[in-house]
Specification:
Layout lengths: L10 H14 L5 H8 L9 H15 L4 H11 L10 H9 L4 H11 L9 H7 L1 H11 L5 H9 L12 H5 L5 H7 L5 H15 L3 H11 L4 H10 L1 H5 L3 H6 L9 E8 L2 E3 L3 E10 L5 E12 L5 E13 L3 E10 L11 E9 L2 E11 L10
Parallel strand pairs: 2-8
Antiparallel strand pairs: 1-3, 3-6, 4-5, 4-7, 7-8
Length: 370
């Protein structure tokens, strides 16, 4: 079994990081920093709590003056890149809310090494007008990482981040930022714009559809944003979203084959499925095929998730066939539980065939529910 992500923070990592800090700040007490971080309860701490423990240990061992502490972290930021160093912007989030200008400079520097998308959110909640003005300014920055921060940081429903309730309710302050970035040369930035719009679509579907219509045709990069932004609406079979991309509901598609096997398996194993469809005679048809899986939660209630299989135009009077595997291995974003799982084939937003598989606990779980 793979080690949990929190294991990236261990004694070796902390010691190596402490050595980097000491190069920039000779008075840094590396051993004290490591001891504080690994203090009581460390093993039980999950990822974000370990990150915060490191942040707090740094605060106790760096200069007491916030600006001077940032000077040290900024001096080594160039050699501290990647996910593990998210505690750099976390330091700003934890200790910099009362020093706005200095914190903004640090967040712009740190976002290139990891990402400041989580750290900006408390600033938005503290003073939304001021922070959104800052992010609009960042949207014109020469660094793609800072431009992405402008969009990613104000996503109303950022995964793993605290929801921005005010922006969920009224996303208007976000729109000037997205408008400025809709033709950004960086795919990294454009993907964030699409994800932000997809977040907004969950609370304001018509607003996103109106934006999609206005932006569509502006250019290849912007068209990609539009399509990716509407993915949630397409999965929900929103009629206007389907129509925007030329996908019409069909009740004349004949199901020739729908097989899912095995019918019984254990968590960690996979099923194979195959489908065969006949398209009636006539004009070319655009087909969007999806797999819908209904997963039991730990409380026994089901939730339904769609997985895109294909989307293409096919001529009339043709046969469409395909298949693949589907794994029931646990993921960081989805845990599986024993019980009946319903699997359905969805064509242009409509379920046309279904089957059930029985998922049992894995042998490692001794046959007991996870």
């Amino acid at each position: 079994m793979a080690e949990p992500l929190k294991s990236i923070y261990n004694a070796s990592f902390l010691k190596a990081f402490g050595d980097k800090v000491k190069q920039a700040y000779a008075k840094f007490e590396s051993e004290t920093f490591v001891r504080l971080a690994l203090d009581k309860g460390w093993e039980e701490l999950e990822l974000k709590r370990r990150m915060r423990r490191i942040t707090e240990s740094l605060h106790k061992t760096l200069p007491a003056d916030y600006g001077q502490a940032l000077d040290v972290l900024e001096a080594i930021a160039g050699e501290c890149k990647g996910f593990p160093y998210l505690f750099f912007p976390d330091f700003v989030e934890r200790y910099g809310l009362n020093d706005w200008e200095r914190s903004m400079r640090a967040l712009a520097i740190f976002t290139a090494g990891s990402s400041s998308e989580f750290a900006v959110r408390p600033f938005i909640k503290l003073d939304q007008e001021r922070m959104m003005a800052q992010m609009l300014e960042w949207s014109g920055h020469s660094d793609e990482h800072v431009r992405r921060l402008a969009s990613e940081g104000c996503r109303p429903r950022l995964p793993w981040g605290e929801a921005l309730v005010a922006l969920k309710r009224d996303p208007a302050p976000i729109l000037p930022i997205l408008e400025r970035l809709k033709a950004d040369p960086s795919e990294y930035v454009r993907r964030s714009v699409a994800n932000n719009l997809n977040d907004i679509s969950k609370d304001h579907p018509q607003l996103v559809l109106d934006i999609a219509k206005a932006w569509r045709g502006a250019g290849e990069g912007t068209d990609w944003i539009v399509r990716h932004a509407c993915r949630g609406l397409l999965k929900a079979a929103h009629p206007e979203a389907l129509a925007l991309f030329g996908i019409a509901p069909r009740d004349d598609i004949e199901v020739l084959e729908w097989e899912v096997h095995p019918a019984s398996l254990s968590i960690g194993e996979a099923v194979e499925f195959r489908y065969g469809l006949r398209v009636p005679a006539g004009e070319e048809v655009k087909l969007r095929l999806e797999l819908a899986v209904s997963f039991p939660r730990s409380n026994g209630k089901l939730y339904r998730k769609l997985f895109k299989l294909s989307e293409r135009s096919v001529p009339g009077e043709s046969l469409v066939q395909g298949g693949r595997g589907f794994s029931f291995a646990d993921l960081s974003t989805r845990r599986h539980y024993p019980g009946v799982h319903r699997m359905a084939l969805v064509v242009n937003g409509r379920e046309v065939a279904e089957a059930e598989v029985e998922l049992a606990a894995s042998p490692e779980q001794g046959g007991a529910p996870a």
